[in-house]
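User: I'm preparing a small set of examples for a lab meeting where we compare how different chains pack in three dimensions. I only have the primary sequence for this one, and I'd like the structure in token form so I can line it up with the others. Please keep the answer compact; I'll paste it straight into my notes.
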Amino acid sequence: MAALLAMAPFAGIYPVFLMKALCFALFACAFNLLIGFGGLLSFGHAMFLGAAGYVCAHAAKEWGWPPEAAILAGTGASAALGIIAGALAIRRQGIYFAMITLALAQMMFFFYLQAPFTHGEDGIQSVPRGKMFGLFDLSGTLTMYYVVLVIFLGAFLLIYRIIHSPFGQVLKAIRENEPRAISLGYDAERYKLLAFVLSATLAGLAGATKAIVFQLASLTDVHWTMSGEVVLMTLLGGMGTVFGPVVSAFVIIGLENYLAGFGQWVTVITGVIFVVCVLAFRRGIVGEIAAWTPQAAAAQKLDVVGACRAGVPNGAYELRTQDGHLRVAGAFAHGSKTGTFIFWSSRGGRIAVIPYEEDARTGTVALWYLAPGANRELGRKLEAPYNGNELHGIKRSWHPDGARRAEFLYDHGVLIEAHAWSAAGKPLSAAEARALAVRDAINDERYYRTLEQIVRDNMPHCE
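Assistant: Understood. Below is the structure token output for the 463-residue chain.
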């Protein structure tokens, strides 16, 4: 990605277009960190983009600050605003959280409309670009572009690191099952507040950079429609994907640029395109592309063998590949999974045994490692006792060589004790063991859902 963006100006792509797309890509990535990985939908993220733009522009024009200091000032202002807004909004969940952020954003909009330093509807114009660190003259379009590119890549790498850090794993655990994360001893509100502040800070970095690029800070960036646009960018690219917001930002800015000749109709046209894309690409552009990869889409056609009663699956159930290999075997009772379901890989290796009672995992779940070629199991991977979809008892896992990996004691979903060992057999600390328990809980739940999705996508036809 970095190489493509670095060469883009020499491929005949207008640098100003690229800079605008990169600023919005960073804005969308910041928002995706909050909703895609934290599960928090904000309808007011424009207040961070706009606030940083105004502070940065004012610092550069009125105070004569160099661009790097002005950008830091704008970013810092958004971080401070994020702390205040997050402290107020994070106490609520779902639609209430979203509406609080919208209300706060509208308050900020009217503040910037009336505040003398923003110059109302005119905005702060003719913002000087200056020289970055006293060395790089940003009045040159190409120099400005590469500064924006460095800022974007640095922020993107930071987001990537956050997502794949222990903090990111806990954040995903809260998104998937907040009560379970709390039961493991994590302060969910503190983690969500930190995610909110990080997202606000990075959105501010995008807004401050944009103000320097276009030498303008205006009400457009703090208007509620900007908050809606970043939501659309995230959905279109693929919520919870790393590259989705980047792709969708370029798509949307490209559409706005090349459809500008239609005047006011451009909003209607792009709206129709968004609706079609959301309906056709439920996982987003990048999510759908990922689903088409050979690994994801072992979307080989499967044959369903199952009976129905009263319009719902009832009785023995089998799922086979076209060449007759079993993929899934189990049973339904009145439309609900019941008894033991056994899952095999596409090449015939047993991968999982999951017991159910009325669709809830109840009993000991067992997973296996697969031998090279995936046609047989290599050894035990996991044994986990469940009661009504909650871990209850001692959960054990092993390394691929058969050495013990972890033992976690649960009581109705609450982690009581955690012990873990490295591949070399060295005991991990209590904190490391508990962190491993959280990561395992997230990964196991995702794996179960993947297996269960195979069944949901291949139900008997009961008409």
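A couple of notes for your slides: Residues 238 and 287 are 5 Å apart (CA to CA). The first strand starts at residue 124 and ends at 125.

User: Perfect, thanks.
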